[in-house]
Amino acid sequence: MEWLIIIFVLIFVSAPVMWLKPSPRQKRQGVLRNCAAEYGISVKLEKPPLHHFKGLMPAYRWYYPQAAPGPDFLLVRDSNASSALERYCAGWRWRIAPLRPLPQAAEQILKELLERLPQDALVVESSSTGLALWWWESQTAERLRVYAAAFDQLRSELGGLADDPIQKGFDTPNRDASPVP
User: Fold this and answer.
1) Residue 127: inside a domain, yes or no?
2) Going by C-beta distance under 8 Å and a sequence separation of 6 or more, which residues neighbour residue 98?
3) Has residue 23 been placed in a domain?
4) What are the Cα distances from residue 180, in Å, to 33, 41, 52, 126?
5) Which helix (H) or strand (E) holds 96?
6) How many domains does the chain have?
7) What is the edge-to-edge ordering of all strands in the sheet holding 42-46?
8) pLDDT-based confidence at residue 175 (cuts at 50, 70, 90)
9) pLDDT tens by residue, 90-110
10) Which range of residues forms the domain containing residue 150?
11) 0.85 exceeded by the pTM?
C-alpha cells in the first residue's frame, strides 16, 4: 500500500513537469525558427491579411534593403480566396496585383516558388519593406532553406521596384519662371 501511495505522489508531482516539456511540434518549430533567424528571416505571429480570419499566424519576412524598397502585391491561395479575385497561377489569386508588371525574371522565380510552397502557405505578400510568407510551418528546417534561397532571389529581383519610389535630392526650380514678389 505504501508503494502505491509513493507512486501516486511521484506521478502527481511529475505531471506538471511533463506539461511544460515542449511537444514534438514545438521542438520542430523552434528548430525552424532558429534556422530562419540564421538566414536573416524575421518571424512574428501576426494577424494575416485574410478576410474573416481570427487569430494569429506565423509570418516569415525577408526585408528589402532600405535604399531599394519593393513593389506592393498580395497573393492568396485559392482555398482562402474569393472566386472573384483574378487568377495568377495554379492555386493562387491576386488580392492586390502589382501596379506595374513584374520583371520576367522575378515573375518566373515567383511562379516556381508558388508551385513548390506547401499547402499550408496561404499568403505571399510584398510591401515596400519586404516579402512575407504567411504559413502554418508544416515543413522542416531543411525545406525552409530551399524556400529561403528562392525568396532571396525574388527579393533581389524585386528590390528597387517600389510603387512609390523615394525621391532623392531637391527639385530644381524652373529658371524661366518669374520670381514671386
Assistant:
1) yes
2) 71, 72, 73, 126, 163
3) no
4) 60, 53, 55, 44
5) strand 92-96
6) 1
7) 42-46, 57-63, 130-135, 121-126, 73-77, 92-96, 86-89
8) very low
9) 899 999 999 999 999 999 999
10) 34-158
11) no
